[in-house]
Amino acid sequence: MSNASQAQPQPLSWRTVGAEVLEWTHHTLMMVGFFVVAAGAYLYMHPQTVVSLEKGVTQWMAARKAAVEELQALGQQASATLRAAQTAPQPVAAPSGPQLTRPQMVVANWLSHRYSIAPLAMQELVSRAWQVGKQEHLDPTLILAVMAVESSFNPYAQSPVGATGLMQVMASVHRDKFAPYGGPRASIDPMANVKVGAVVLKDAIARGGSLQAGLRMYVGATSNATEGGYAAKVLAEQARLQQVVAGAKAPVGAAMAAAGPAAKPQLPAPKAEQTASSQPEAPQTIKHSV
Fold first, then answer.
1. Residues 44 and 158 in one domain
2. What is the pTM of this model?
3. Which end of the chain has the smaller Cβ count within 10 Å, N or C?
């Protein structure tokens, strides 16, 4: 056999590999043991180092325990707050009405008791009457009196001839006035009905030349004999409202004004020129609202 064939490496066997691993492990353990012995000797020779290590470990364990307890306390507090928020009754916001002056609020309360209307709803109507009265230069108590006589403050009231809403306006006749509010269907909208009704009433008073004549035209009557006492009912209700505004006591249980006559066409008539002579005669003058 030649020397070249003798120089070829022999394949490794599992036995050889195992022996090398055991040898490496043995040396490693020896090194670990050496370091352990060396560390023990060092600590034995320097006891103050052991005391420092024990103190540091003790402080670390105490700080860790305090941190864990603090986290647990915060978690319990958050859980309690969440449970309280889930079980506590939710506050209900109180309904708020319009901002009324003291006389307006007194009028609203008086009308609410007199006509059995919810206080907040009546406050809205009183606020609207004062707003429209200022815009159209009509006494708001007159607007409220017309509402009382015409519908007893029922926004869905309808007469046999088709007059609808709080002020019983003929929506089919006054389509142009309801157009900005969406058309005749808006006649049952309290805000739109009060505005249009006040405009119609103002035109009737201007054409009639006096408050009584204007009320007669508003209800569609041709004379005092055919109006059925409508103007007197409205003026009597307005007088009671003016007493309430002035701070005087007006009877809540007074005879309720009846609705006007059924025939109420409210047909538009040619507008007369509004001169000084066409203003309502005293004492039934139209007051500017304040």
1. no
2. 0.59
3. N
